[in-house]
Amino acid sequence: MKSQRIVLLISLFLSCTVFAQLEKGDQLFSIAFAPYPTTSNGEKDFGVIAKADAEFLFTNRFSLVTSAFYSNNTTFNNASDISFNAFGVIPSLQYYFVNKEKWTVYGLVGYGFGFTDRSFRSSENSAITVGALGAGAHYKIGDKWYLKLQLPYFKAQNISFDFTEVEGVAPFIGVSYLL
Questions:
Q1: Residue 77's beta-bridge partner residues?
Q2: Side-chain-facing half-sphere of 8: CA atoms under 13 Å
Q3: Quick one: what percent of the chain has pLDDT higher than 70?
Q4: Top CATH class, 23-178
Q5: Is residue 127 scored above 50 in pLDDT?
């Protein structure tokens, strides 16, 4: 009788753990921000990159994420007197290496498009492509809420005028909500 209780308790514990993980069919909505330091005309500016993610897990390990981003290079400091904004969409594929009850760790790869309002010659704005490769994690802080940390390496290439807009690692921090 005692062994049956132990087996029952272990089974209940394991089933609770399984159901608390992110699972196939789950949907998450996230918002996150990253600092955006830039140098223009030898002057240092400081802005922010903001993004909103809609994520759908099509297996317990793989998810498809659509990220809408907005950036401004002079949100907090405009020493160069050159301000520019960018916005766009980056579809990404994520793989969860760790998918536990309280936390997850994943890798991501994505490629998308956007626009920047930098003016060149007679053009009012420019088209950009954005590639991203990185890692991230979620830490459960509530029933459906997660703290999100993401470290993607990204490169934004201006395809209108053939130069690199920005390139590097951006440490995003934000929150995710399980729908």
A1: 46
A2: 5
A3: 86
A4: mainly beta
A5: yes
**C-alpha pair distances (Å), 92 with each of 53, 64, 79, 109, 157:** 10, 6, 34, 5, 17
pLDDT per residue over 9-64, tens digit each?
444 444 444 445 789 999 999 999 999 888 878 888 899 999 999 999 999 999 99
Q: What is the spatial distance between Cα 174 and Cα 177, in angstroms, rounded to a whole number? A: 10
Is residue 83 within 8 Å of 97, Cβ to Cβ?
A: no
Strands (E), the chain: 27-40, 43-57, 62-78, 85-99, 103-116, 126-140, 145-158, 163-169, 172-178
| pTM for the predicted model, two decimal places | 0.81
- C-alpha 144/C-alpha 97 separation (Å) is 21
Number of other CB atoms surrounding residue 165 within 10 Å: 21
